[in-house]
Amino acid sequence: MSITEFSIGRLAALTGCKPATIRYYEKIGLLPEPRRSPGNTRIYDQIHLGLLRFIKNSREMGFSQKDVRVLLDITGQIHHPCADVTRIAKAHLAKVDLRIARMSALRSELEVAIQACDGELVASCRIVEALANSPQKI
Fold it and tell me: Could you give the count of Cα atoms lying within 13 Å of 115 in the half-sphere of its Cβ?
């Protein structure tokens, strides 16, 4: 292999993705299948490296696989207007804001329950009561 070609182990080390994750992304079509050596070993290149970094970063930001697939399709079309990327990012931001609001409400509820706990018996524990009755969903 040349300097611009990678085994799955090397690609995993360069991106922080596990080999099983790389194979999974290939299986579902997010990452194109690499060429194979005569011994049937996967041989990845710079394109795979760039795509895998994009996928990993997108997933770490919380984008769904569906959104990542659309973003990959769009980024493959360099003359495509950026409006579609912006639309996807704005929709994702709205979901992030909603989760933050829910987490903030949950934090407040948990904080109140902890402060109200007398530390005595479980039967009178405000934390247990809050967990049993909380309408919050994350």
Answer: 6
Do residues 22 and 57 both lie within one domain?
A: yes
Per-residue model confidence as pLDDT tens digits over 12-48: 999 999 999 999 999 999 999 999 999 999 999 999 9
pTM for the model: 0.79
Is residue 14 in some structural domain?
yes
| Cα separation, 53 vs 92, whole angstroms | 19
Report how many domains make up the chain.
Answer: 2
Q: Quick check: helix, strand or coil at residue 44?
A: strand
Res 130: pLDDT: 77
Residues facing residue 44 across a β-bridge: 6
CATH number of 29's domain: 1.10.1660.10
